[in-house]
Amino acid sequence: MPPDPAHRPPHRRPVTALLAVALLAVLPATGCAAPPERRVAIPVAPPTPAVTVPPTTAPTLPPLTPTLPATPTLPTPTAAAVATDCAGRPSASGVIGLLRDDVLPGNVSVRAVDGPLCADGWQYTVLAVSGHEELQAVSRGEPGALRLVTAGTDVCSIEVKAVAPPAIRTLACDAGTGLPPGA
Q1: Are 168 and 122 a contacting pair, CB within 8 Å?
Q2: Contact assessment for residue 115 and residue 92, using Cβ atoms and an 8 Å cutoff
Q3: Which of 180, 166, 175 is nearest to 119 (CA)?
């Protein structure tokens, strides 16, 4: 007959039960470890062979002979670069007529001191006005269809600077300043 459970010694438990409890306590902690590191072999390229370049010598240059620089030639002036007397086309009275109604009162005496000078369909005229300073006028167009561009004591306007031929621009913007043209 089997021993009475009340008479069994209390300190003896089956070893398998203790082992099972111990394994259950330890196994969850050991199952979470990181996977082992994978190593992949990378092929190594063969070394590049060294290239040997044969030594060279610098070419020998012939001795330099001194030469004089070429003589600069001045450009030939064009009609736009030089203002010439308009030869009556337009006449001084034609330019004064442009100024009579808008710029000049009808009762002053006016005469051309310089010009009209022409370049590429533009005209520059300096006028003496009785009782006033000299007056400059820039006009453009054919004698029968003149248009006043600007008039006054300073006629270097934006339109003159941007569109007028160089000769007219020089006369209008540099005349009487004491500066060289274009300065």
Answers
A1: yes
A2: yes
A3: 166
